[in-house]
Amino acid sequence: MVGQKCTRLLHSALRNGSRFLNRSHHAAVVSEYGKIEYREMKDNSPREGEILIDVESAGVNAADMKMMNGTFHRKPQFPFTPGFEMAGNVKSVGKGVNKWKEGDRVVVLRSNGTGAFSEDCIVDTNVDVIVPLPYSIDYETAAAVSTAYGTSYLALEKMAKNREGANVLVLSSRGMIAFAAIDLAHNIFKAHVIAASDDELKLDKLRDTGVSKTINYKKEKLMETIHKSTMNHGVDVAIDTVGGAVFTQAMDCVRPGGSLFSLGFTSGEIPSISLLDLHRTQVSISGIWLGAHPKKETETIIEMLLGLFDQQYLQARIEAKYSLKDIGKCMEDINDNKLFGKVLINPKD
Fold it and tell me: I want to staple 343 with a disulfide (CB 3.0 to 4.6 A). Which of 8, 60, 168, 242 is the partner?
């Protein structure tokens, strides 16, 4: 009897050991440009200086789409898991990690731009942006904040140093950053906001934010409409996420001495700037990329923004949520221009 019991225990241990050695999770994987798949992946353990994140929600950004299509300036080796913005829990920690422990709720931005579209994600505490997530903020809200609000804040904080009550023009075709820029400009920086897009259905959603005016830049002459709305003054600040011809038109909407901020190129067209136009318009132009900012500075900004959400000064607008299994459908809907606003991937759904 003793021998049989020992044999059963041994077999059980071997089976459990086999499962332990072959633990797995699921992730979205790009094996070639334009192709993304839902796959089972072998688990990794955090090494020195790393933590393993149990991903509850991941934000989808224009940079993710460009990386998957091979048009982003960063080109990871195949196969790779896209996504750099996530919220979740610390699942385990590697050697030398003292700041974080198992169970901590966190918001993360991956410095290399990959890994978030997964059930688990290894994070490097030395280079990745990691911020504690208050229990009062849910994972989906947290996953929608970092990139859109962080990028918008970097542009708008410069305006805040000048004066309250400025006129701000926000141009968007995808809405991923537009709602954040409007939310911050209207509720934090007390600006008068004009929103412009290329479709009436999109403009209806922008009107719901309480903007002063909306413009369909496909049907209306942007410069003429802006100058009419501002008594020929022009806007103090323009925030462009579209690029192409829209960016060029935006230059003529800004008052002399005002600022134009480029936050992205969702049109796929990167505009060229004429030095003569800068002399003519007297507009200051800046490109804003959150990923270029130092880790500690970015963490400070995100912590501050989460604090504003915690105090209910801001409210994220989420357009759609997809399960990890439906990653292909998500990418298809975004590419087909069916979604306008922040999109999330929820691996647990």
Answer: 60
